[in-house]
């Protein structure tokens, strides 16, 4: 085999090999912006494999967040429940993240709890109203 061919194949293989260092993890964050009620926000997220447990975010605390790589074989999905209110009487269950079959890298999904509803934004986009709270 031609040496140049071997060398070129090697370069091409290296170039297209998935590289963890290049593919930054995706992050999902939950912000408490419950300006009027100043209620604590409770967050509980799960994927098929992981139960991330209960997390409490006080008003204007740093966002609760977690990071992960998209699963190459099975689509990564995180489903979360948020609660707010003096007795956590308001809640909403929704899919907070769905992976891309081609593996997304370095995404930042921000879910913001406001008194009126739950808003969503990604890097550089304006928050969009996504879900209303459900009262017990
Ligand atoms: C918090 O919510 C208010 C509306 O209730 C909005 O105007 C403001 O931009 C939000 N702040 C942050 C940090 O997202
Ligand atoms: C994620 O949480 C860590 C602490 O657990 C915090 O230092 C960091 O600022 C948070 N990042 C975002 C993007 O909210």
Automatic annotation (TrEMBL):
InterPro entries: Self-incomp_S1. It holds the Pfam family Self-incomp_S1. It is found in: Secreted. The keyword tRNA processing does not apply. Keywords: Secreted, Self-incompatibility, Signal. Residues 1-21 form the signal peptide. One of its GO terms (biological process) is rejection of self pollen. GO terms for cellular component: extracellular region. The keyword Signal applies. Belongs to the plant self-incompatibility (S1) protein family. This is S-protein homolog. It comes from Microthlaspi erraticum. The lineage of its organism: Eukaryota, Viridiplantae, Streptophyta, Embryophyta, Tracheophyta.
């Amino acid at each position: 085999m031609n040496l140049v061919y071997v060398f070129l194949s090697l370069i091409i293989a290296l170039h297209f090999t998935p590289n963890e260092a290049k593919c930054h993890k995706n992050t999902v964050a939950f912000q408490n912006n419950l300006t009027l009620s100043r209620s604590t926000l409770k967050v509980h997220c799960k994927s098929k494999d992981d139960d991330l447990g209960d997390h409490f975010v006080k008003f204007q605390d740093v966002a609760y967040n977690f990071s992960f790589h998209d699963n190459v074989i099975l689509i990564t999905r995180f489903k979360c429940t948020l609660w707010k209110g003096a007795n956590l009487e308001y809640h909403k269950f929704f899919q907070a993240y769905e992976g891309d079959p081609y593996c997304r890298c370095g995404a930042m999904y921000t879910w913001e709890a406001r008194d009126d509803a739950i808003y969503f934004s990604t890097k550089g986009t304006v928050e969009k109203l996504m879900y209303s709270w459900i009262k017990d």
